[in-house]
Amino acid sequence: MAFVKSKDTKPEMIVRKGLWKKGFRYRLNHKRLPGHPDLVLRKYRTCIFVNGCFWHGHFVELEKMESSQCCRIPNTNQNFWVAKIRRNKERDKEEQRKLAEMGWHCITVWECELTPKRREETLESIAFTLNHIWLQDHGVKCDFYPKQEENIPIPIAAEE
């Protein structure tokens, strides 16, 4: 396990390059935030975590801890792996809760969502979510023209 990378993984590089091409700018592995998010977009107050399906137990319920479609728990030393994946899932929830208390939005991108067939759809979804967050935080409220009473004449600026 010493050779397993935690930074600059292939799924993370796919997300980074895709967001950069779409014009989003970010910081990597921010040390002051809980969980050291993979990507931090301060303008959007958003943290993006790019998780491997195996290491973070994608589609695995905490109670059952059985293999899922994209996370197969090994048969050898199964107790160790179940405990490790359970700890990772609990730690992820706790870190995201702390970030939410600090006012940050969290997006989790799973490794299986970045397959060549689904990659562009996933990147578009992230971009849509980021733009939606920005509009919610900075959106200008539009008040439409007030309704006019039927009998009151509307003043015209340039009358004949």
Overview of the molecule:
The protein is an alpha+beta fold. The chain is 35% helix and 11% strand. The chain has three helices and four strands. The chain has a four-stranded mixed β-sheet with strand order 1-2-3-4, with helices on both faces. Helix 2 links the parallel strand 3 and strand 4. Helix 1 (10-21) packs across helix 3 (119-138). It is elongated, with a radius of gyration of 23 Å. The chain starts with 9 loop residues before the first helix and ends in a 22-residue tail after the last helix. The mean pLDDT is 83.
Give the oligomer, counting copies of the same chain as homo and different chains as hetero.
Answer: single chain
Number of helices: 3
- Note the overall shape: elongated
Q: What's the pLDDT, averaged over the residues?
A: 83
Going across the major beta sheet, what is the strand order?
A: 1-2-3-4
How helical, in percent, are the residues?
A: 25-40%
Low-confidence stretches: none
Largest sheet: 4 strands, mixed
Structural class: alpha+beta
Q: Write the element-wise H/E pattern from the N-terminal end onward.
A: HEEEHEH
Radius of gyration: 23 Å
Strand proportion, as a percent range, falls in 5-15%
Distance between the termini: 85 Å
Q: Tally of extended strands? A: 4
State the main characteristics.
single chain, 160 residues, alpha+beta, 4-stranded mixed beta sheet, 3 helices, elongated
